[in-house]
Design a protein that fits this description.
Layout: H1 5-16, E1 22-25, H2 32-40, E2 45-46, H3 50-56, H4 65-70, H5 73-82, E3 87-89, E4 94-97, H6 102-116, E5 119-122, E6 128-131, E7 137-140, E8 145-148, E9 151-153, H7 168-175, E10 180-186, E11 190-191, H8 195-198, E12 204-214, E13 218-219, E14 222-223, E15 231-242, E16 246-248, H9 250-260, E17 269-273, H10 280-293, H11 309-318, H12 332-343, E18 345-348, E19 351-352, E20 360-365, E21 370-371, E22 376-377, E23 383-385, H13 399-420
Parallel strand pairs: 1-5, 9-23
Antiparallel strand pairs: 2-4, 3-4, 6-7, 7-8, 10-20, 11-16, 11-19, 12-15, 12-17, 13-14, 15-16, 17-18, 21-22
Helix pairs in contact: 1-6, 1-13, 2-6, 10-12
């Protein structure tokens, strides 16, 4: 169930290995999120090996060992290119189709699916799913009722609900006793009430460092700093975009999961370093030297080669200084305030843009209830789960697509191997859902 990244590859692989396979999709077209991803370019994966993918998922990464051993980033790229879609590696390590068209990636997956013999049923949502006394699964859609010895849930999470990912899979998994770790938005923009941030809407800072600070000193539900000082919940470095609602861009999206998962997000602060390649001491000396060399120059234009003028003016105001002040008039204390504003600008957080703008869902089916060696439920034989429906979320950069493709492929392969090894004989009207 679910013709996204995980479902398309899972169905194709199961069918290639001999399973009569039916792929149900409630939308009238498959792969809607694939078409939306990467700004409609589709960031397929990251230019790294399986260890690089595992590392970026943190503790969750251990779950991906078998999946990535079966379909590595290199295997995935080869699979896409074998379908006639050339790929390229960008400076950030992100891998895209050379055409910059997500539709080319989807078409490649559909070619593989159709060639496999799997049947794709569009506009056909699952209405009911239950287990029969003889161990089969009984499925009902608006169009038919059928039975199958194996069912694979690849319905995704709750991110971009307009694409159809509305958390349906959690209901089916919970029905069979699975624990659902509370879903929350990940890779979503962060909002703020700070007026100065919104005045910079549209401005991109190519290199910034962002830390999410909890003044109460709590992290993961426990006090992180014994003395009650602020704790750093997450930190990343990359491109930052100012928007009319707050902050976005890769560096912000990557830290957003700790904001959406916090019980009191309004207590949090985003601390931004807009010149992370320069130490605070070196920046102080740079400003001092420039003030000395160009005393008549206004402060707003002093760091023109380092900061955009709009940002420089905003940070000066944040430091209580006027952009029109002549450099020679900047006191030592004023200089320290401006340097602090550049290196440690504190932006109060009001929340996130939620699931509506989230690229990924954090939370989902608990990983310890799924066998990572084949993606089969540890609670219900014949029930498989793959992709974003699992409690598995990684950073921006193709990591989440790789996880979806790999877990889907692994699940499909094990369903197929069950057929080859003489598993339950399928009835004439049964297939794989």
């Amino acid at each position: 169930m679910g013709a996204g990244a995980a479902g398309l590859l899972a169905a194709a692989r199961a069918a290639e290995l001999g399973r009569r396979t039916l792929l149900l999709e409630k939308n009238v077209r498959p792969g809607v999120k694939i078409l939306m991803s990467g700004g409609t370019r589709c960031n397929i994966t990251q230019a790294t090996d399986h260890r690089g993918i595992i590392r970026e998922f943190g503790p969750q990464g251990r779950f991906l060992h078998s999946a990535l051993a079966t379909l590595s980033p290199q295997d995935l790229v080869a699979l896409i290119e074998a379908e006639g879609v050339a790929t390229k590696v960008e400076e950030t390590g992100k891998i895209f189709p050379v055409s910059n068209k997500a539709s080319d990636v989807l078409d490649a997956l559909l070619r593989r699916l159709h060639r496999s013999g799997a049947v794709l049923a569009l506009g056909e949502p699952l209405i009911e799913l239950e287990r029969t006394q003889d161990g089969l699964f009984r499925l009902s859609t608006p169009k038919r009722a059928l039975e199958a010895p194996s069912v694979l849930i690849t319905t995704g999470g709750q991110s971009y609900p307009g694409s159809g990912t509305t958390g349906d899979g959690y209901r089916w998994a919970a029905q069979f006793g699975h624990t659902i770790v509370a879903p929350r938005p990940a890779l979503t923009p962060i909002t703020t009430d700070a007026a100065w941030v919104k005045t910079l809407s549209g401005l991109t800072i190519p290199d910034a460092a962002v830390r999410i600070l909890d003044p109460a000193g709590f992290a993961g539900g426990k006090r992180h700093r014994p003395n009650g000082g602020p704790s750093c919940l997450a930190q990343r470095r990359g491109s930052l975009l100012f928007t009319h609602f707050g902050l976005s861009g890769p560096v912000v999206l990557d830290v957003s999961r700790v904001v959406s998962g916090h019980p009191q997000p309004r207590t949090l602060t985003a601390e931004c370093d807009f010149l992370p390649s320069i130490t605070e001491t070196a920046l102080d000396e740079l400003v001092r030297a420039q003030c000395q060399a160009a005393g008549k120059k206004q402060l707003g234009g002093l760091l023109a080669t380092h900061l955009p003028r709009r940002l420089a003016d905003a940070l000066l105001a944040l430091a209580g200084l006027s952009p029109e002040t002549r450099s020679a008039e900047l006191s030592k204390a004023g200089r320290a305030q401006w340097v602090a504003a550049i290196k440690r600008a504190a932006i109060p957080i009001s929340g996130t843009r939620g699931f509506k703008k989230a690229e990924v869902t954090a939370g989902g089916v608990a990983l310890d209830e799924v066998d990572s060696r084949d993606m089969q439920s540890r609670l219900v034989p014949g029930l498989y789960l793959a992709g974003e429906v699992l409690d598995l979320d990684g950073p921006i950069g193709g990591y989440n697509f790789q996880a979806a493709f790999s877990t889907g492929w692994l699940a499909g392969e094990h369903v197929g191997k069950d057929k080859q090894q003489g598993g339950r004989k399928e009835e004439s009207d049964a297939g794989e859902a």
